[in-house]
Automatic annotation (TrEMBL):
GO cellular component, one term: cell envelope
Coiled coil: none
UniProt domain Endo-acting ulvan lyase C-terminal: residue ranges: 766-838
Signal peptide: 1-19
Keywords attached to this entry: Signal
Superkingdom classification of source: Bacteria
Gene3D superfamilies, sorted: 2.70.98.70, Chondroitin AC/alginate lyase (1.50.10.100)
Sequence ranges assigned to domain Heparinase II/III-like C-terminal in this UniProt record: 490-564
Organism: Arsenicibacter rosenii
UniProt protein name: Heparinase II C-terminal domain-containing protein
Compartments where located: Cell envelope
Single annotated GO MF: lyase activity
InterPro entries in the cross-refs: Chondroitin_lyas, Hepar_II_III_C, Ulvan_lyase_C
Length: 904
């Protein structure tokens, strides 16, 4: 608290001493030019980056020398006298412009008339036209656009949000030309950039922020869209001296930058990612002002003071770090939204650091935010796609900024950042030459060596705000396994219950589809954001958020799942190299249905393994289990592993015209002829490296299996993004609590290792599930799962008291006992007892050599022996032994990691 008080005291001092008298000064200082040129001269990646910049901008600059009107005429402006609008009015929701007013003596900048891009009749977005495809001096409010869908159809439509995208592409050229001028001193670059900048500023200076709700911006229907004009502020910084020397009118700029800064400070939304994503506009525009008092005024809203008015306004860094970041630095929205606000904050931080405001020193959590996404990545380095998002990856830009700032302050996390950078470069395939102008100007010339430190992926993880839990086993992209289970109400979530994603054979196979064409599009509101799009269980065909989701990017109120048990818990070491699990619970708000889901990873060799999924749902009418796997086809097999004959069918729960979960969007629905029992399903992927996902299950009375085609998933790998997603539906008439859905998922590329599941006797099926998994290598695992860790259950030669346990068997007998969380597991004459319902232990057996890892003191019983000697880290301890009348031996082991017990 004393440190925070001190920082608040010194912050105004920082603000009064930062003003720069020379330009550029926002991302780089005038004196940095020699350093950047040296970087280009000595570092091949920087040379290539600079060459890429010139290659992009040179054709436009060359054309500008003989045809200066060409690029100016492609900029979208209000050009018709009498319609050179200066005032813009939105509807009450801030969705679309409904009225224009005013008439300037010069063309003004067109404002996007809608917050969303137009959607083609085929359901795909339109392709943004290249600058060369634009009509010169276009005064129409419509455009001829081409669909990005397979048909590539053309249509004449309102470009909507695309207006600012097109102008933003030209703005990027302006910035690149301004940078080229700064580095080469060639006036042709400056003239091109200054001419476009001058036209833009002259028109914008006569415009006023949109009148409407506080989400509306200055030159965009949404404040978020004003980010398209960030390049113009940076370009002005590089062209500052040239504009004056060449005689351009510079009086336009101060009012434009002031309006941007004021709009960002007091409009927008603070209860989602907007305020953070807008910070570069706020900081860049503030630093572009000549009035130093106004600079300090606006920067204060970034560094110290919130401007909250209802849902509107800006959060300063102290509040933002407390409210919007997890302890490890993850932005509190779906993973796909992390990179956007965090990269904006980091870029803003670079500008503030240049201005003498040490934000990275004041907020070290920014370092964690720069690389935390790697912590939650699948083995192929992509991150889960739950919610309104695509499938993200660790941002190299964020990591580069983190490394540069950590080196500046000699931060203790520098080693971890460098280890993460090694992964991003060598394994994720990041090429520094593609880092654009930020890399050229701001990144270190060379990334220091990690000093032998390697990035360590944790076995498990948790994002509490999203009730998201992950387990992984292995980090090799081809053989690693990882699942994520998630469900909660938060910004940009989906209504999905306890939904999972499964990884295998080099890709995310059990897939969450991400968002639809737009947040208001019928496919998004009626399918992608609903239960049927996810790997979950629907209750009575009616599961939905309450109230029912009607569109938008906000919260879908579905309640949240509850973590009951997990091994290893986030931040803990695992007790087993082969096994891990989670147990979550949920109550469906729409139907009152209680549900319980146990997910586990079982490793059977360094190359093979499978997932266990046990899902209980107590709706008395029906329960529908859904699993979507990216690929080309899915086939149902009988107990003999032969394909079952199938026939066309309809899903009973899709008959309601409203169909809240979205089943109506499934096509090509089929079911086995005569409702033949299904032993397994196999999903096949033929693109790239052929792969398969086999799903073994246990039949139940009253259960019907279906296969179908679900709508495409934009989160799939590129080759499958335009294809429908095969889906498996298991429908249980009546409750599925005493008859839980049991599925074993195995991804593989050549031959699967799992051969069959066998149900084991359960004394109370509603509270205890037991089955055997037989593998091709002759091993078996007895899977034990219970809903109450306090009650003891028995099955064939096995006893169990806990949430989840595994008995590993080979032809030689017991291989291991895994007590995921519980107090007792017993089989084949061996027993583990922890003395606590939340105990965790693993015992492997190799003749008279036992290995044990236990999180607490654990009593071990074995069939025979006289002495037990425990060796840990080379230190031997004789364990007191107790023998019973039949020769069985028991002893107690203290909490230990990888202890070796020799039995004599």
């Amino acid at each position: 608290m004393l440190r925070l008080f001190f920082l608040l005291i010194i912050c105004p001092v920082c603000l009064t001493g930062f003003a720069q008298s020379s330009h550029p000064h926002i991302l780089v200082k005038a004196g940095d030019k020699a350093l950047v040129l040296e970087k280009i001269r000595t570092q091949p990646w920087a040379r290539q980056s600079f060459d890429n910049l010139l290659k992009h901008v040179d054709p436009y600059v060359e054309r500008h020398q003989t045809d200066p009107d060409w690029i100016l005429s492609r900029y979208l402006m209000n050009r018709v006298p009498g319609k050179r609008y200066t005032r813009f009015y939105s509807d009450a929701e801030g969705t679309a412009l409904v009225r224009y007013a005013g008439d300037a003596p010069v063309p003004t900048v067109r404002v996007s008339p809608h917050k969303r891009p137009p959607i083609a009749p085929d359901g795909y977005r339109f392709r943004t036209p290249r600058i060369e495809e634009l009509l010169p001096n276009d005064t129409s409010m419509t455009m001829r656009l081409q669909s990005s869908g397979p048909g590539k159809a053309w249509a004449v439509v309102d470009p909507q949000h695309m207006v600012e995208v097109i102008n933003g592409n030209i703005n990027q050229l302006v910035l690149e030309a301004a940078i080229a001028y700064w580095l080469t001193d060639k006036p042709v670059y400056a003239r091109f950039a200054a001419d476009v900048l001058n036209q833009w500023a002259r028109g914008a200076s006569r415009q006023y922020p949109i009148e409407g709700p506080c989400r509306t911006g200055f030159l965009s229907i949404q404040t978020l869209g004003d980010g398209s004009y960030e390049p113009m502020m940076l370009a002005y910084d590089f062209l500052y001296d040239y504009l004056r020397q060449a005689g351009y009118e510079t009086g336009y700029y101060e009012p434009v930058f002031d309006r941007f800064a004021h709009t960002m400070a007091f409009r927008g939304l603070w209860n989602n990612n907007w305020f953070a994503a807008e910070t570069p506009v706020l900081v860049f525009s503030a630093l572009s002002l000549e009035n130093r008092q106004q600079q300090r005024y606006y920067l204060d809203f970034m560094t110290r003071r919130d401007t909250i008015a209802g849902n509107c306004g800006q959060l300063a860094l102290p509040t933002a770090m407390e409210k919007w970041f997890t302890p490890d630095g993850h932005w509190k929205e779906p993973g796909g939204y992390h990179n956007f606000p965090v990269s904006s904050l980091l870029i803003s931080g670079v500008a503030l650091e240049n201005a003498g405001i040490p934000v990275f020193q004041q907020y070290p959590a920014l370092f964690q935010a720069s690389y935390v996404m790697l912590k939650y990545a699948f083995p192929n380095y992509t991150v889960s796609s739950f919610g309104d998002t695509g499938r993200p990856m660790q941002s190299a830009e964020c990591l580069e900024i983190g490394v540069a700032m950590a080196q500046k302050y000699n931060s203790p996390v520098l080693g971890s950042l460098l280890a993460a950078m090694e992964v991003v470069q060598k394994k994720q395939g990041y090429d520094r030459s593609e880092s654009g102008y930020m890399g050229l100007l701001c990144f270190l010339p060379r990334i220091p060596e990690a000093g032998g430190q390697q990035y360590q992926w944790p076995r498990s993880g948790e994002l509490d705000f999203a009730k998201c839990y992950l387990q992984r086993n292995g980090t090799d992209p081809g053989t690693g396994l990882m699942y994520v289970v998630q469900g909660a109400s938060y910004n940009h979530n989906h209504a999905n219950g306890m939904s999972v994603e499964l990884y295998g054979a080099g890709r995310v196979m059990g897939i969450d589809p991400g968002n639809g064409p737009s947040y208001e599009d019928p496919m998004h509101t009626g399918y992608y954001a609903q239960w049927a799009a996810h790997n979950t269980v629907v209750a009575d065909g009616r599961s939905a958020s309450v109230p029912y989701f009607r569109g938008g990017g906000g919260t879908k109120n579905m309640g949240e799942i509850k973590l009951m048990a997990m091994e290893p818990r986030a931040g803990q070491a695992a007790v087993s190299a082969e096994c891990s699990f989670t147990d979550t619970r949920y109550t469906d708000k729409a139907t009152g249905t209680g549900q319980q889901r146990t997910l586990a990873i079982i490793r059977t060799s360094p190359e093979t393994g499978y997932y266990v999924d046990i899902y209980r749902s107590d709706n008395a009418r029906s329960n529908e289990y859904l699993y979507h796997n990216v690929g080309d086809a899915v086939q149902l097999l009988g107990a003999d592993r032969k394909p079952l004959p199938v026939e066309a069918a309809s899903l009973p729960m899709a008959t309601d015209a409203n169909d809240p979960p979205g089943f109506r969007h499934f096509t090509a629905v089929k079911t086995p002829v005569g409702n033949l029992p299904v032993s397994s399903a196999v999903f096949s992927l033929t693109a790239g490296i052929p792969a398969f996902m086999q799903v073994h299950t246990l039949p139940e009375e009253g259960r019907t299996m279906y296969v179908a085609q679900a709508p495409r998933a934009g989160t799939a790998e590129a080759v499958y993004q335009q294809k429908p997603v095969p889906v498996l539906v298991m429908r249980q008439t009546g409750e599925s609590w005493n008859r839980p859905f049991v599925a074993v998922y195995e991804p593989f590329t050549e031959a699967g290792s799992v051969r069959a599941l066998t149900r084991l006797p359960a004394d109370n099926p509603g509270a205890f599930t037991a089955f055997s998994v037989a593998n091709r290598n002759g091993s078996r695992q007895l899977i034990l799962q219970a809903t109450d860790a306090e009650k003891e259950h028995k099955t064939t030669n096995t006893g169990f008291r806990g949430y989840f346990g595994v008995v590993g068997l080979t032809s030689d007998g017991l291989s291991y006992l895994y007590l995921g969380e519980g107090s007792m597991i017993q089989s084949q004459g061996y027993t583990l007892q922890t003395g606590t319902a939340a105990g965790s232990a693993n015992l492997t057996v190799d003749g008279k050599r036992l290995r044990i890892t236990c999180r607490q003191a654990t009593a071990v019983s074995i069939p025979a022996g006289r002495k037990a000697v425990l060796t840990v880290a080379g230190k031997q301890t004789a364990l007191p032994v107790r023998r019973n009348e039949v020769g069985a031996v028991s002893f107690t082991v203290p909490a230990v990691t990888d202890g070796l017990i020799i039995i004599d």
